[in-house]
Every structure is written in C-alpha cells, then in structure tokens.
C-alpha cells in the first residue's frame, strides 16, 4: 500500500533540508572535516551541567508551568533588560520553549491567517520558509547584496510589502552570512515596519556572538516593542544545542496567544534543561565571554586565510559562520560543495540552500578547533588551485 496518500498537501510539498543531504554524505565518509554544522564545538559549561544533575538528584522530573519555571522567566527578564535594554514582564510576556525553533514555529502559527505574507530577507536560516508555509502563510523572500556584506536592504523590504503582508522576519547576526545590522540599519527597517503597520519577528539567537559592535535588539527601538516578537535561546551563545531550550518575549496579547498553542502542543520545555538554563543565566557570563573571545580569534584567522586562498570573504560581524565567494572555482555552490567533499573531504554548505542570493557562496562554520580549520583551509586551497589549473578564472589576492 502506498501510505504517502495519507500525507497532507503542505507536507508533501515540503522539500527536505539541503543541509541534511551533505551531512548524510559526509557521515558516510571517513576523515571528513566538517565546517557544515551550525553549532558550537564547546561542551556546555560544567556548572550548567552540574545544575542539571543536581535538579535530577532533587527529583525535579515533573512538568513545569506551561510557560516555563517562574524563576527562569524572571531570570530571562533580568537578562534581556541587563544585556539588551528591553523590558518584558516575566509572568505574561515571556515563554520558555523547546529551542528558538519552537518559539519561531509558535510565533508564525500565532499570527498567520491563510495567505498572509511574511517578508524574509535572504540568504536566511533554512527553517524560515517551511515554517511560514506550514503555518499557512506565504514566504516572500527579498535578496540582499554581497557587496555590502549581505546586510538586509530596507528598500528591498519596502518594495516587497503588499496588502497581504503581515510581518517581517529579521535575523541579526545572520545565519548563514554572519552579517550584523547596526542600530542605524535597524532604525531604517523599523521605520518601514511602523509606517506599514506590520509586525516584526526578530530572531536574536546569535545575539551573544557579536564581535565588533554592540548588538541591537529590535524591540529596544522606539515604537517597536509593541509590534515585535523577540526569539532567542541558549543553543548558540551558551553552547547548549542539545538541551533544546529557547524563549520568546512579546507583548502580553501576542505572548499569551502563543502560550495557547504551546500548552496544547508541547505542555512545557524540559524541566531539567530549565534548571540548567537558570544556572547559565545566573553564573554563565564569564564562560559566554570566553567562548566569544575564542570564536573571534578563529574568525579573524579563518576569514584572512580564506581570502588568501582565493575565496573572497567579507568579515562577518557575528555568529560563527563565514560566507566566502566560490566564484573563482567556476562551479555552482552545490557542485563546489559536492566536489570539495568528494575530493578533499571538507564539508561546507552550498549557499543556494539559504536562498537564491546565496548562490556563488558557501557557508563555513568556524566553530571548529584552529587545527581543524587550518587543515580544512589547506585542503580548500589545493582544491581551488586545481580548479585554476582546470581553467577556472581565478584571480590572485591582489586582484580582490
Ligand atoms: N534561528 C537561527 C537563525 C538558527 O541558526 C538556529 C539554529 O541553527 C535556530 C534559530 C534554532 O535554534 P535552537 O537550537 O534554539 O532551536
């Protein structure tokens, strides 16, 4: 019997993530250096792990309140105020979720009516479009320009607005490009959002990993708090991907509506992870800063070396991704990623999976040890040299 006839139309339409395909291929090979994964290479701080162990020893194995432990929501509220200058009331405006992923899903399902459009600057995180579609909406992608470091262009957003536009989904620092919007950039975008009376969903999962300038939280801009759903979590800055813990913060009417879906579909986030997150927020700052300093060092080394090896790459302001051009290889981003993996055993992600303006680029995560990065760069450089000999129009560094 063909059970696929039971599938819903929206799921049948969904394409599997382009990232998975390369992970699966890489996992079947030996000696692969993976620059493909989007997660820290640090193990979660010991004190955070210990807090979880202690909570289990104490027998904290039951459900928490639907919205999350009150203590944790209070701590998140202090944290957002202390670090990003945004005020949210712990009781009614903060929701603890299963990763930022669930917070995004809830936000979109809460606001979208069938046919509503959500504007998404791309290249972007692979989940955005599918989540909008699963919620019954239409993702409207706007492209960004590699010449300005893939910063979202306010004019592009404005051009994409129609009478069906409901929201704009912004991510800074960005996955996959690492680009960061300044306060000025955000001001321009928020003026458009206010003028057209739209909602903003601000994915701030990489907020802790901004290297050159202070991070701006969209809700901290004048008139934006009331029309922003802020999404964040512990996965990246606190190196806690496997704990599956994130949160959303929004004005009570929006947040309480998200909570309605959450209480029926999830009940609550894992209680032991919530106890761990409490410790991360109370005593984790030093470790976050230590990891950030390390990423910054790797970024500087990695981006400089990419440029030297024939991969023009702007310096990303945040996250742990570099997004170099592969133009001089003469290959498409998918061909490049596949051939690099097969010939040199280095896994990167083709830029096209993040949107059409990602074509001609690949995403490399530098959340790997310096020695791994060094070896990966050696292999990438020799791959590029061979392509040059194969006739690709490769230029030297002086030409960039
Ligand atoms: N948002 C962005 C931009 C991401 O890159 C990721 C993970 O890669 C997520 C959200 C999901 O994070 P979480 O692990 O908290 O679900």
TrEMBL record:
InterPro entries for the chain: Aminotransferase_I/II_large, AspAT/PAT-like, NHTrfase_class1_PyrdxlP-BS, PyrdxlP-dep_Trfase, PyrdxlP-dep_Trfase_major, PyrdxlP-dep_Trfase_small
Cofactor(s) demanded: pyridoxal 5'-phosphate
Domain of life from the UniProt record: Bacteria
Key words of the record: Aminotransferase, Pyridoxal phosphate, Transferase
EC code(s) of this entry: 2.6.1.-
Keyword flag Membrane: no
Keyword Lyase (UniProt): no
Every Aminotransferase class I/classII large domain range: 31-379
One of the record's GO molecular function terms: transaminase activity
Family indicated by similarity: Belongs to the class-I pyridoxal-phosphate-dependent aminotransferase family.
Name of protein: Aminotransferase
Organism: Metabacillus sediminis
Lineage: Bacteria, Bacillati, Bacillota, Bacilli, Bacillales
């Amino acid at each position: 019997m063909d059970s696929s006839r039971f599938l819903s139309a929206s799921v049948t339409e969904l394409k599997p993530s382009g990232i998975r395909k390369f992970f699966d291929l890489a996992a079947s090979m030996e000696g692969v250096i993976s620059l493909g994964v989007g997660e820290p290479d640090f193990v979660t701080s010991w004190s955070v792990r210990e807090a979880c162990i202690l909570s289990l020893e104490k027998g904290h194995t039951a459900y928490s309140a639907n919205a999350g432990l009150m203590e944790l929501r209070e701590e998140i509220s202090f944290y957002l105020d202390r670090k990003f200058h945004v005020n949210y009331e712990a009781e009614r405006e903060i929701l603890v979720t299963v990763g930022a992923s669930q917070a995004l899903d809830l936000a979109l399902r809460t606001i979208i009516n069938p046919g509503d459009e959500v504007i998404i600057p791309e290249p972007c995180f692979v989940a955005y479009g599918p989540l909008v579609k699963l919620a019954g909406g239409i993702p409207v992608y706007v492209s960004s320009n590699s010449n300005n470091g893939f910063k979202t262009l306010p004019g592009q957003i404005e051009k994409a607005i129609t009478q069906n536009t409901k929201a704009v989904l912004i991510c800074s620092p960005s996955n996959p490009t690492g680009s960061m919007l300044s306060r000025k950039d955000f001001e321009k975008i928020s003026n458009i959002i206010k003028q057209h009376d739209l909602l903003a969903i601000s994915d701030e999962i990489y907020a802790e990993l901004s290297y050159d300038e202070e991070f701006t939280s969209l809700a901290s801009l004048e008139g934006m708090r009331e029309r922003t759903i802020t999404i964040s979590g512990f996965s990246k800055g606190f190196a806690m991907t496997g704990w599956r813990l994130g949160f959303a913060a929004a004005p009570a009417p929006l947040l309480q509506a998200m909570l309605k879906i959450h209480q029926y579909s999830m009940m609550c986030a894992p209680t032991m992870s919530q106890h761990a997150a409490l410790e991360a927020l109370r005593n984790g700052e030093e470790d976050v800063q230590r990891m950030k300093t390390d990423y910054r060092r790797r970024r500087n080394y990695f981006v400089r070396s990419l440029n030297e090896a024939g991969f023009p790459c702007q310096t990303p302001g945040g996250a742990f991704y570099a997004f170099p051009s592969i133009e001089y290889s003469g290959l498409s981003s998918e061909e490049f990623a596949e051939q690099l993996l097969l010939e040199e055993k280095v896994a990167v992600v083709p830029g096209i999976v993040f949107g059409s303006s990602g074509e001609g680029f690949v995403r490399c995560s530098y959340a790997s040890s310096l020695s791994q990065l060094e070896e990966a760069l050696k292999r990438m450089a020799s791959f590029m040299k061979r392509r040059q000999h194969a006739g690709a129009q490769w230029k030297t560094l002086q030409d960039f």
